[in-house]
Structure formats: structure tokens, C-alpha cells
């Protein structure tokens, strides 16, 4: 348990590690390329190391040289991984379930009890449409998943992405290695659209052509080769959010280095939300700064930026009026049921916060001291640590859960106090 010390104002500049989402994608794409690639600024966290280890179990040799991860890709020739444990890393499970289709035998992908409740049925259905043998061993549409790898023919997939965009990202990533190409028609959603753009971006950076009609239809020609090369992971904007929220909540000014407003990471749109609530956002040299102001509640559709809901929910607790967060039912399938978690923990702080059919309704007030349960969810821990900057007596239980995406979070959080009053 960690108790957060309030501050009266914050002036800070913060560095944040590489993007988790880009790290997963570049590791997989480099593994599917033929030959040596290097990845600079890779995020080294629990989840990304699970993906790395899984690829090594599938026969990909990696190393660290000069501070860069070296990946010796095998051109899609992968060996079955036996049983691979992937913790509670949804991105690892969904993307690697697709990658396992390329192996030469049976691979079982599993994870924590919570991971075994996170849905993959629509992904498995999509993979089966292109000839992949992929089943939920418990028959409940969740991990453990058994994939029987074989040469990937390709074909047409009618895919539901109303619960997760990761199903589409996984099938896109393996499609270039099919014989006949893969056409994907989206039946539901997709939610979390920016992550699809990040997938297509990484594929393009490694030389793969993806034809698309918006988010409704994608076609990836077969027999394409990912190009090995030297790649760099950009700063993680999801994890930058907590520091911008610190400025919003305290009225201070916090700059995050190494980020650009034209990033493909959708979570950059949190800045638009903070501006609408009354903050000022400034491009500042090599980064972006946020200055807090008097906060006013907003209504916002966050379907595309689900990971920002805990962050915005905490900021909303300090705003005048009501904040309505809409179109985020998929938050119930994350590391925890994040709608219930945010509503419960804000209610513990004396805030009128409740779940709606597809989101949250939060009436700002004066949050009170509370012991915050984090449900082993890194984003709950990091979001509520921000509340403690303004409210005396906020204690965070299970604070080590930040290892999932940001192992150095508490050290970075400490820099907020360097120039604080
Ligand atoms: O593809 C990715 O890297 C991610 C996609 C999102 O999940 P969904 O697409 O399931 O919403 C997001 O919540 C997750 O943190 C990372
Ligand atoms: C939901 C998240 O990641 P994943 O889907 O990989 O578990 C997250 O990082 O908030």
C-alpha cells in the first residue's frame, strides 16, 4: 500500500517509457520478418516481456545489443509453443493467438484467472473462417485457447469487433503470410479504432500493403514479406495521461517529453477532453505541457480511447458539474470491469459516480480520503494516484500492479514533487 502526499501546485517535466501497444506490434512484425531487426526504446514491462518470451518460445531468437532489442525474425516459420502463459495481457493473448496459427503444431495460450474471463470468441470465429483450428478449451469463448498451426491459406473473414479491436489487429498481422491474402469485413464496431491504425502503421513501416475502406473493410494481399530493419518505439501516450491529469487536478503545469499531438496513438485525444474541461494544452519544444484550470464536466464518447476512462474519471471528480462518459461498454472486459471499478472507488471518495448502460456518470465534488482498491489493474492504480495529489489521505492498494505497463511509474510520479509546493 502506498499513501499519496497532496501538493498545492505542481510544475514538472516528465519522461515516459515507450508505447506498450507499439512494442507488442513491432516485436511481432519483426519476428515475422526474415532476418535481423532492432527495436529502440522498446517498453520493458510485464506485458511486453510476455509477448517477447512467447515469440522466443515459438523459435524467434532475440538479444539486447547497445540498449536495443535485436529480433532475428524467421519469416513466419514458427515452432509450436506448447503451453504459453500470458498473464493478464489481452494484447499478447489476442495478437499471439493469431500468430500461433503460423506455427507447425499445437500451442495453448492461457493466462491468469482474470485473463480466462476475457473474451476471444469473435477472434476464434474469425480465424476459423480462414481455416485456422482455434478453440476455447473451456468452451466459454475465453482462454485457454488451443491453436493448431498450419500453412495459412487466407480467404474472407466476417469479423465482429464490438468488444475488442485486438481481434482485427491479430488477423491483420498474420494476413501477409497467407497464400491467397485475407479480406476482412467488419460486422460490429470496431471499438478502439486508433489501435487498428497503429497496427496498419506498423505493417506499413515494415513494407506491408494494406488496402482499406475506412474501418469497414480491409484487404491484405498474401505472400508479402515483412521487412527487417531498425525501428523505434515512440513514447507511450496512455501513460503520459496521468501526468497531464496531475496538472489538471492540481492547477499546475506538467510537460511530458517526447510526444507529438499528431501521434497515431488515439489516447492523445485525452488532451482535447482536458481542454474542453478548462485546461490549457501547450506544445512545448520536444513535448506537450498541460496547465490546469477551473474544471467543468463534459459529455464525451470514449469508444476509441478506452484506456483513458479511468484517467478522465478521476479528473471529472474534481470538476464542476456532471461528466458523462459514453460508448465504453467494452471496459467491462479489461484487466477488471473498469466501469464498476471507477464508479466504486470514486464513490468511496464521496463522489456521486455511477455506471450507466454503456459508460459512467460522474458528478464532480470534493473527493475525500479513501483506501483505493486497484483490482490488480495498473490503470486504476495510476489514475487514482492522481486524486491523491489533491486529496489528503488517498492510499493505493497493490501498487505493484503498475509493472504491467509502467514499472517505473512511482519513480516518475515522484518527480511531480521536485518543484511542488
Ligand atoms: O491493441 C492494443 O494495443 C490495445 C487495444 C485496446 O484494447 P481493445 O481493442 O480490446 O479495446 C486497449 O484497451 C489496450 O490497452 C491495448
Ligand atoms: C487493456 C489494456 O491492455 P490489454 O488489453 O493488453 O490487457 C490496458 O493496457 O489498459
Automatic annotation (TrEMBL):
Residues 5-412 form the Enolpyruvate transferase domain. PROSITE patterns: EPSP_SYNTHASE_1 (PS00104), EPSP_SYNTHASE_2 (PS00885). This is 3-phosphoshikimate 1-carboxyvinyltransferase. Phosphoenolpyruvate binds at residues 20, 90, 118, 166, 338, 379, 404. Its main location: cytoplasm. Pathway: Metabolic intermediate biosynthesis; chorismate biosynthesis; chorismate from D-erythrose 4-phosphate and phosphoenolpyruvate: step 6/7. It is found in: Cytoplasm. It comes from Desulfococcus multivorans DSM 2059. Keywords: Amino-acid biosynthesis, Aromatic amino acid biosynthesis, Cytoplasm, Transferase. It is an enzyme of class 2 (transferase). It comes from the Bacteria. It catalyses: 3-phosphoshikimate + phosphoenolpyruvate = 5-O-(1-carboxyvinyl)-3-phosphoshikimate + phosphate.
Amino acid at each position: 500500500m502506498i499513501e499519496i502526499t497532496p501538493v498545492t501546485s505542481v510544475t514538472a517535466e516528465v519522461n515516459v517509457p515507450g508505447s506498450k501497444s507499439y512494442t507488442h506490434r513491432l516485436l511481432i512484425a519483426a519476428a515475422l520478418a526474415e532476418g535481423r531487426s532492432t527495436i529502440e526504446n522498446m517498453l520493458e514491462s510485464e506485458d511486453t516481456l510476455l509477448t517477447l518470451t512467447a515469440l522466443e518460445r515459438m523459435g524467434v531468437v532475440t538479444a539486447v545489443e547497445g540498449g536495443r532489442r535485436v529480433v532475428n525474425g524467421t519469416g513466419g516459420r514458427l515452432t509450436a509453443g506448447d503451453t504459453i502463459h500470458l498473464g493478464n495481457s489481452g494484447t499478447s493473448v489476442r495478437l499471439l493467438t493469431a500468430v500461433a496459427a503460423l506455427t507447425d503444431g499445437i500451442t495453448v495460450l492461457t493466462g491468469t484467472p482474470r485473463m480466462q474471463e476475457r473474451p476471444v470468441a469473435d477472434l476464434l470465429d474469425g480465424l476459423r473462417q480462414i481455416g485456422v483450428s482455434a478453440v476455447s478449451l473451456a468452451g466459454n469463448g475465453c482462454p485457454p485457447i488451443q491453436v493448431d498451426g498450419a500453412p495459412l491459406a487466407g480467404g474472407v473473414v466476417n469479423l465482429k469487433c464490438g468488444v475488442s479491436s485486438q481481434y482485427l489487429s491479430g488477423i491483420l498481422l498474420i494476413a501477409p503470410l497467407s497464400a491467397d491474402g485475407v479480406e476482412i469485413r467488419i460486422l460490429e464496431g470496431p471499438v478502439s479504432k486508433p489501435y487498428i491504425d497503429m497496427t496498419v502503421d506498423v505493417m506499413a513501416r515494415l513494407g506491408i500493403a494494406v488496402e482499406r475502406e475506412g474501418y469497414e473493410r480491409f484487404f491484405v494481399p498474401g505472400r508479402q514479406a515483412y521487412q527487417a530493419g531498425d525501428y523505434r518505439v515512440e513514447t507511450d501516450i496512455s501513460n503520459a495521461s496521468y501526468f497531464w491529469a496531475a496538472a489538471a487536478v492540481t492547477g499546475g503545469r506538467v510537460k511530458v517529453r517526447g510526444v507529438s499531438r499528431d501521434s497515431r496513438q488515439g489516447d492523445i485525444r485525452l488532451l482535447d477532453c482536458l481542454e474542453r474541461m478548462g485546461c490549457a494544452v501547450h506544445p512545448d519544444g520536444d513535448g506537450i505541457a498541460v496547465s490546469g484550470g477551473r474544471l467543468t464536466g463534459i459529455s464525451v464518447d470514449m469508444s476509441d480511447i478506452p484506456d483513458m476512462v479511468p484517467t478522465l474519471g478521476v479528473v471529472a471528480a474534481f470538476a464542476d458539474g456532471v461528466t458523462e462518459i459514453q460508448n465504453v461498454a467494452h471496459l467491462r472486459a479489461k484487466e477488471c470491469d473498469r466501469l464498476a471499478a471507477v464508479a466504486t472507488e470514486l464513490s468511496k471518495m464521496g463522489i456521486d459516480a455511477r455506471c450507466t448502460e454503456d459508460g459512467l456518470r460522474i458528478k464532480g465534488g470534493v473527493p475525500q480520503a479513501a483506501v483505493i482498491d486497484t483490482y490488480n489493474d495498473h490503470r486504476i492504480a495510476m489514475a487514482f494516484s492522481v486524486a491523491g495529489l489533491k486529496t489528503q489521505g488517498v492510499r493505493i492498494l497493490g501498487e505493484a500492479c503498475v509493472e504491467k505497463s509502467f514499472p517505473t511509474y512511482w519513480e516518475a510520479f515522484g518527480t511531480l514533487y521536485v518543484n511542488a509546493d
